[in-house]
Design brief:
Gln-tRNA_amidoTrfase_suB_CS, 489 residues, alpha+beta, 3-stranded antiparallel beta sheet, 40% helix, nucleotide-binding, Aspartyl/glutamyl-tRNA(Asn/Gln) amidotransferase subunit B, 16 strands, transferase activity
């Protein structure tokens, strides 16, 4: 349970948060037309006659969009409605050529489900109220002309899943964890790419405040927030604003607000509309959607192993820590990269899982962060990473030298075997050479030898380090340790 509270002049206040996430459905065409949905196209270059609402044009549901919504619902363990219906949501704006949006209000395709999140040290279940399909609107552009606004209809008709949470979140941290987990699931399923910076996933943020345990307060809705950081900032600002209003004797107006990321604050946009304001009614051009058992079975069988199940398997089968397993399964692309790495080692995953996970999280992620790259653009392939791990495991190079080899791999893209061969980095287990180096170190440090034999056991590490230095880092550490123990007595 979250302990997040706002300290006001009249005592503590609790924040109540619900999110409506709009996720663009992965599909090559729009919800009711065959127009393309590629990001970044020239304005009004992906608009069919249906999207532009030309007279006599009838919508035809996109089977793939329906399939992806159902698969998403199944991944959230939600109720799937075999019978659903599209409604018309009536409002008038320049970027909505029909004068209405085709959505689902009364009979959505997906009902209640859940998402389990980790916020801090605690695990919490967040309820999903519903998922419904709807069309996106177009886009108004106000900076193209000094006295006119332009309209781009490329997004008009793009399929969206609106994923509505229950008001179960109690802190900005929980809301951030919820969005990250939802995005992870969508990417695993393949139903949305989750690219918030491109607008394919955004959230309407509902916030109210109350005295702990009291009835829910009046909520505001902050529209179209497009990053996890901004979602958390909007909640923080809006909750504190509401507390200030209430403690000064005012009341909260149910309204729609916008978040200004430059100022880090929300501002009023318009009074909040209710469902009856939109005059919903069943769309007369569309029959109800009826899903048969074969379709539902195919949807369920197509689902991949999801992040929670994969994390649990990594812990039980590979012996990974909860932290490592969570990091490696948080993103579908990372999990695929890691599993390709494991397979490329040619050894049982249980035997190499820990070493591989430590290398990915520490060495690889550290390097990618430094280079400003994600795992999809890694200069080192999973196969190369597997070979590097193998060279350490079979004693060809030491762990210390492997870091030098890895840096060269990052710079050149070369395979680790070639780097080791070219630069003469193979680890030696030649006891004669190692003994000679040890004798030299002992001769040069007689005072420390005496201290060690007098009980200062921690000096053993000094002798190991000096011997490795004398061997240019190429000595087998196991052999060094064994010979030093004999020599030092």
């Amino acid at each position: 349970m979250s302990s997040y509270r706002i300290q006001g002049a009249t005592g503590e206040w609790e924040v109540v948060i619900g999110l409506e996430v709009h996720a663009q459905v992965t599909s090559n065409s729009k919800l009711f037309s065959g127009a393309a949905t590629e990001f970044g196209a020239e304005p009004n270059s992906q608009v069919s006659l249906i999207d532009a609402a030309m007279p006599g044009m009838l919508p035809v549901p996109n089977r793939e969009c329906i399939r992806q919504a159902v698969r998403t619902g199944m991944a959230l363990e939600a109720e799937i409605h075999a019978w659903s219906r599209f409604d018309r949501k009536n409002y008038f704006y320049a970027d909505l050529p029909q004068g209405y949006q085709i959505s689902q209000l009364y009979h959505p395709i997906v009902g209640e489900g859940t998402i389990e999140i980790e916020a801090g040290e605690t695990t919490k279940t967040i309820g999903i109220e519903r998922i419904h399909l709807e069309q996106d609107a177009g886009k108004m552009m106000h900076d193209q002309h000094p006295s006119f606004s332009y309209v781009d209809l490329n997004r008009s008709g793009v399929a969206l899943m609106e994923i509505v949470s229950k008001p179960d979140m109690r802190s900005p941290e929980e809301a951030g964890a919820y969005v990250r987990k939802l995005r992870s699931i969508l990417r695993y399923v393949g139903s949305c790419d989750g690219n918030m910076e491109q607008g394919s996933m955004r959230a309407d943020v509902n916030v109210s405040v109350r005295k702990p345990g009291a009835e829910f307060g009046t909520r505001t809705e902050t529209k179209n927030v497009n990053s996890v950081r901004f979602i958390q900032a909007a909640i923080e600002y809006e909750a504190n604003r509401q507390v200030d209003v209430l403690e000064s004797g005012g009341s909260i107006v149910q309204e729609t607000r916008l978040f200004d990321p430059d100022k880090g604050e929300t501002r009023s946009l318009r009074s909040k509309e209710e469902a009856h304001d939109y005059r919903y009614f069943p769309d007369p051009d569309l029959l109800p959607v009826e899903l048969d058992e074969a379709f539902l079975r195919d949807c369920r069988e197509s689902l991949p192993e999801l992040p929670d199940a994969k994390r649990s398997r990594y812990e039980s089968e590979l012996g990974l820590s909860h932290y490592n397993a969570s990091v490696l399964t948080a993103d579908a692309e990372t999990a695929r990269w890691f599993e390709t790495l494991l397979a490329a080692t040619g050894k049982p995953a249980a035997d190499v899982g820990r070493a591989a996970s430590n290398w990915v999280i520490s060495d690889l992620f550290g390097a990618l962060n430094r280079l400003g790259k994600d795992i999809g653009s890694s200069p080192v392939t999973p196969e190369q990473g597997a070979r590097l791990i193998g060279l350490v495991a079979d004693g060809t190079i030491s762990g210390t030298l492997s870091k030098q080899v890895f840096e060269v791999m990052l710079e050149t893209g070369q395979d680790p075997d070639a780097i080791v061969e070219e630069r003469g980095l193979k680890q030696t287990s030649d006891t004669g050479a190692i003994e000679a180096a040890i004798d030299s170190v002992i001769t040069a440090n007689q005072d420390k030898v005496a201290d060690y034999r007098g009980g200062k056991d921690k000096l053993f590490g000094f002798f190991v380090g000096q011997t490795m230095k004398a061997m240019g880092g190429k000595a087998n550490p196991g052999v060094v340790n064994e010979l030093l123990k004999k020599k030092l007595g």
